[in-house]
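[AMINO ACID CHAIN]
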Amino acid sequence: MMKKDLQKATGIRGVTGIEISKGEVVNTEVLVKICKVLHCNVEDMVDFVETSEEMKVKYFFVMIKEKTWRYHILAAQNISPYKGSGRLTREQYLFYEMRITAKLMSEGLEDCEVIKRIVEDNLFQYPTEKSIASMSKVCIARLRVLNDNSLIEAVAMQPMSVAKQICLYAMMKQYRLMRDFMVTVIGEKYRMQELSFGKKDVTIFFMQIQEQDDFVASWSESTIKKIRQVIIRVLAENGYLDNIKSEKLNPVLLNPILENVIRNNNDEWALPAFHCFL
């Protein structure tokens, strides 16, 4: 259920919807109307967050798409689940950089030593030391998100197909936008056995996210275009697409190494993205 649908179902004025999104004070009657439509209690929508200044209220919009899930809006504190996802325009997939970094980390080097080695030997073959150091830190952070040394070693040593799949999983854990796309778009296509794919699928995904999230709605067309290109290249790199112009998804096979870690980490939410269902 989008915000506009919620407003229509409850009879809430547009200005009231804006006030809720901004975390401003609203009449309790408004909350009652939302509860009736969404069949929930007030405590399911409202939480109190104590700050050094005052008690602030954070509001939750409950979204409906086959299954019910909560989309959190902390507009008063300017927090979006997609904050940080815009970095995909420059951080991108970085598979070869990730593999190099993983090999050094597997040698037992400290993070600072890994960065030093990469910069001094120009292992990324970038034009400036600043860009090398910056991307080294990105790769380390993305590998650390895996929270599993066996996966880091797998990125370093396993065949490319396995290592690439783990790198995609790392991106999904690091960037909420990548996670939601892979699960709600790619995973859903696999679930429905609908393997057609095109740029329109990515465009529709962004349109839905922009309707739900003011932070993403503020992104420029240029930013969205770049991220869309990154997503499609990642799909091609991992065999989901034969190439970036392909209009058909390929079934993928989840490697047992990654599947075991996903299940052990209780990250079953990621399985549909790899054509794997409980």
Summary: Residues 3-77 form one domain.
